Amino acid sequence: MFIPFAGYLGSCAASMAGYFACQACTCVSREVLTQSARVAWSALFFVAMVTAWILRDFAKPLLEKIPWIIKDATGELDEKWFGQQAVYRVSMGSFLFFATMSATMIGIKYKRDSRDKYLHHGNWLLKLGIWLAFTALPFLLPNNIVDAYAWAARFGSGIFLVIQMVILLDFVQSWNDSWVASAEEDEQWYYALLGVTVAAYAGSLTVAGLMFHWFKPSGLDCSFNVLLITLALLLCVVFSVLSLIPSVTANRGSIFPASVISLYCMYLCFSALQSEPKDYQCNGLAQQLTAASGTTLASGMIITLISVIYAAFRAGSNTRLFTLDGSLDGGDSAPERAALLAEAEEGTSAGLDGIAPEAQAINRHIELRSTMEDEFAPITYNYSFFHLIFALASMYIAMLMTGWGSQAQDLDHIDVGWASVLVKTGAQWVTSLLYCWTLMAPALFPDRDFS
């Protein structure tokens, strides 16, 4: 009798331990979602993009059963067409969801706003259900509406890339300013700047050498590839020369940002050449990777998705670049909070005079002031802009997975095709123009503040 009874107690103890463990995990997960909404939103965005990736390869059996999609289709209905339609529709649902959230979050300045608590940081099961509804909605729409969204996504993706470039330029300049400021107290930081600068230039030359090796096979006329590589090297020279001009150096010009931007532009050139069709004879790298396994392909896609999420996360958090006054809450939060706190103080004093002892009145006044300061604490980033960035990133993923809408996109690869080559080359030149403008603008317009 004792052994069964002991076994029963052990089973009950194990069940109770499991129950409490589940409750603890639930509480911890709820606390994480409440306190770190940006991580949760990034996870939801990642789920949306993985869903698009899966349907891109396996959507044909599903879409063939939807009559209004098949009925309005034109041209040959091969697996590529079905894959593109699935990606466009999932991307459209994600875009509509995040765009709606962005519009809903307009005007939030303080953490006491109910939209902060119930929409941005809370009710995740409800928001998951709404996201599922938004994801399913585009599958009920006719093809012409989805095709119109696909064209709009081209422009939205361009805006996302430009924002990403502005964030990069600001990051590099802030990095330089931070290390230069630290070097005023410890000259070791100057050696660190020199080391990173030399490494960046060495990396640029290394990438250039690899591109000449892989994308200019011997015996073949690959003048287009040679032109792109040569122009990228010339841009690096232009960046370096501009950063050394005395009038530019006096306005935050430095060789360190020039070296980092040079390395990034060389990377964009390499990425553009890598996106050339796999059967193109001048894409020597593709010829060497023809035997790439499915695991390698999956890893490449996941890394691409994670990089897009990181870009959207960083851009959504860095709204200082996209506000006129450099503040997140419109610039009037401090006076407004001061007025409200002064009003609360007057009301507290008036309500306590002659009613409570002086010590009790002071304690209540301190508690009330602390409560109001918490309620009127400004938000740490712009929620509306944060969701807008994810909406634009949803468009960018649609272009990334379909080769910017190219009918020649191969389902066995991602971001491959001449459209991708042109887009990345354009991104390289836009980045170059933006950086050159940041160098020359202070010298051309000395009366304006470009800080």
From TrEMBL:
<keyword id="KW-1133">Transmembrane helix</keyword>
<feature type="transmembrane region" description="Helical">
    <location>
        <begin position="148"/>
        <end position="169"/>
    </location>
</feature>
<feature type="transmembrane region" description="Helical">
    <location>
        <begin position="293"/>
        <end position="313"/>
    </location>
</feature>
<feature type="transmembrane region" description="Helical">
    <location>
        <begin position="426"/>
        <end position="445"/>
    </location>
</feature>
<feature type="transmembrane region" description="Helical">
    <location>
        <begin position="190"/>
        <end position="215"/>
    </location>
</feature>
<protein>
    <recommendedName>
        <fullName>Serine incorporator</fullName>
    </recommendedName>
</protein>
<keyword id="KW-0812">Transmembrane</keyword>
<feature type="transmembrane region" description="Helical">
    <location>
        <begin position="39"/>
        <end position="55"/>
    </location>
</feature>
<feature type="transmembrane region" description="Helical">
    <location>
        <begin position="6"/>
        <end position="27"/>
    </location>
</feature>
<comment type="similarity">
    <text>Belongs to the TDE1 family.</text>
</comment>
<feature type="transmembrane region" description="Helical">
    <location>
        <begin position="385"/>
        <end position="406"/>
    </location>
</feature>
<dbReference type="Pfam" id="PF03348">
    <property type="entry name" value="Serinc"/>
</dbReference>
<feature type="transmembrane region" description="Helical">
    <location>
        <begin position="255"/>
        <end position="273"/>
    </location>
</feature>
<keyword id="KW-0472">Membrane</keyword>
<feature type="transmembrane region" description="Helical">
    <location>
        <begin position="227"/>
        <end position="248"/>
    </location>
</feature>
<dbReference type="InterPro" id="IPR005016">
    <property type="entry name" value="TDE1/TMS"/>
</dbReference>
<feature type="transmembrane region" description="Helical">
    <location>
        <begin position="86"/>
        <end position="108"/>
    </location>
</feature>
<dbReference type="GO" id="GO:0016020">
    <property type="term" value="C:membrane"/>
</dbReference>
<feature type="transmembrane region" description="Helical">
    <location>
        <begin position="124"/>
        <end position="142"/>
    </location>
</feature>
